[in-house]
Amino acid sequence: MGARFLPERVNEGLGVTKKALWEDMRGFEGHVEHGIVQDVNVPGHLFVIGRWSSREAAGEVLARYSESPNARNANELVAEPGRRAVGRRLTR
Length: 92
Prior knowledge:
The protein is built from 3 helices and 4 strands.
């Protein structure tokens, strides 16, 4: 997932993103781990990299999570809508 937060709301957006990940994602079956990467050139641009036990587990979260309170809070802070994708790791 990627999100671009408004410059004046970067810290608030990062806080909501962390809360969503560490509190919400751990509750979903198949969650393995998540990390946040911040674009050094555009600090409001965050990438969330998640690891799931299966594509189905990741897909279930993508289908259900957008209506959660934390997702709604994050969406209120963004400069543009986030994009979600399911991918596979090619290198280690």
